[in-house]
Amino acid sequence: MSAATGTLTGARATGARGGQTLAYPSDQFPGPPTIALDIPADWSPVRVAGTLLAARRTSTEGAFAPNVVVRGFTRSQQFTIGRALGELAAYVAQQEEGEVEAPFEVEIGRVPFVGVNVSWTDETIGDVVQAHLFAGARRGQVVDLLQVTGSVGGPDVEAEYPTIQQVMQTVRVKR
What we know:
By secondary structure, the protein is mainly beta. The chain has one domain: Mog1/PsbP, alpha/beta/alpha sandwich (Protein Transport Mog1p, Chain A). Helices cover 14% and strands 39% of the residues. The radius of gyration is 20 Å and the shape is globular. The two termini are 31 Å apart.
């Protein structure tokens, strides 16, 4: 901020009044990890608020297109993957016929993930099935959490599930 006008003036080599300039991303405040995901030829990237990246099947006959989204969160150092699973389970419990399967562990590209499959019934779509993968890394006083979610819904859930599973297995995380 300019001391004279109180407006932002951009980055400076030194901070106002002899202080320091903070930047994001930087060594002190690193940004989210680099994420890559391979999608089938009939899928397209989509912009979804709150996600690092997202994609869905472009053409769909039903009301629900199979999709995969990747979200990143920074949480307090006390946060655990178990807590993330608990938050997801609480959400699913509020859904009609909500079910949470037992969590599992999987390693993709040398990154350990904890996964869980959930499902519920939506009055418009019908059956909804989601596969979730969580990975976390402690960084000082915080935990960087990555959540990869694949979703399918409608009458073709069983036929569509292998596609989201294949897409999710291509995730590459680089710090």
